[in-house]
């Protein structure tokens, strides 16, 4: 009671204020010092980080192994597949479908081989029209083909004992360079964008457009089709045409008109959206197209268009 009186007299508190001061003061000291005391008592030194890291790494490895089959199921939803090694040049349609290819893809590969085509490296499969990248990524390690063709060995000419004196041709340096540029030809179905840039007037933009248009078509059936590439003027085409060629044995990638979806038909440069609708309606109404004559009867294409389109279609 003496402490209360001293506090009350010293601070001039009322009785209620004095009681509050007596309660709050000890509580403040408790709040200030107890957390520090608790930390010193409960702090534990932990040195098991390396062990925990090894355990976590092993759990991640197990997770990846367990997730791999489920990822393949997500890439190929609804398809009962049996991943096994396969040689696309000899596999039957049933074997191709067994590793996840649908009937249309298996049929295209089989028809491509029947027409004389072959696969030399794994990535050749992606040239088949409609072959999805996600499916290729799953099957890549099971394809029994090399990743790339071996580079041909180049024989280095041995220097002769006596130097041969060559007579200088009566051409200027500029004329000799021009003759060298004009002396080569390119197969437009096999040349890549870098090779196409060897043509005078063809830069990166034009070369990439030519390659893209070739992929959309399924291959060039004639060098005249290069004129259809966006931006290629008639004068530019006339200047490069003598250096272009099409291998007559090249197998165009064809679309089976009876099996193709709306999206697949409409993706071809020679078939418009409206023409695609009419073709799909005709299939629903009259059934399969038995030949090119059935397509001609629809009168969807003029005489020039139909001649250009037919090489890219199958009627099976």
Explain how this protein is built:
- Keywords: Membrane, Transmembrane, Transmembrane helix.
- The chain crosses the membrane at residues 21-38.
- This is Helix-hairpin-helix domain-containing protein.
- The chain has 14 helices and four strands.
- The chain is an all-alpha fold and 316 residues long.
- The chain has four domains: 2-36; 78-147, DNA polymerase, domain 1, CATH 1.10.150; 174-245, DNA polymerase, domain 1 (Orthogonal Bundle); 255-314.
- The strands form two sheets. Strands 1-2 form a two-stranded parallel ribbon.
- Helix 1 crosses helix 2.
- The protein is elongated.
- Residues 68-75 have low confidence and may be disordered.
Largest sheet: 2 strands, parallel
CATH topology of the largest domain: DNA polymerase, domain 1
Classify the helix fraction into a percent range: 40-55%
- Major sheet strand order: 1-2
Class derived from helix and strand content: mainly alpha
Q: Roughly what fraction of the amino acids lie in strands?
A: under 5%
Residue ranges: pLDDT <50 for 5 or more in a row?
68-75
The separation of the N and C termini measures 111 Å
Write the H/E string, N to C.
HHHHHHHEHHHEEHHHHE
Treating each run of at least 4 consecutive H or I residues as one helix, how many helices?
A: 14
Number of individual domains:
4
* Rounded average pLDDT: 80
Tell me the CATH superfamily of the largest domain: Photosystem II 12 kDa extrinsic protein
According to CATH, what is the class of the largest domain?
Answer: Mainly Alpha
Overall spatial form: elongated
Assigned CATH architecture of the largest domain: Orthogonal Bundle
Per DSSP E runs of 2 or more residues, the count of β-strands stands at 4
Rg of Cα set: 38 Å
Transmembrane segments: 21-38
InterPro entries: Endo/Exo/Phosphatase_dom_1, RuvA_2-like
Keywords: Membrane, Transmembrane, Transmembrane helix
GO biological process, one term: protein secretion by the type II secretion system
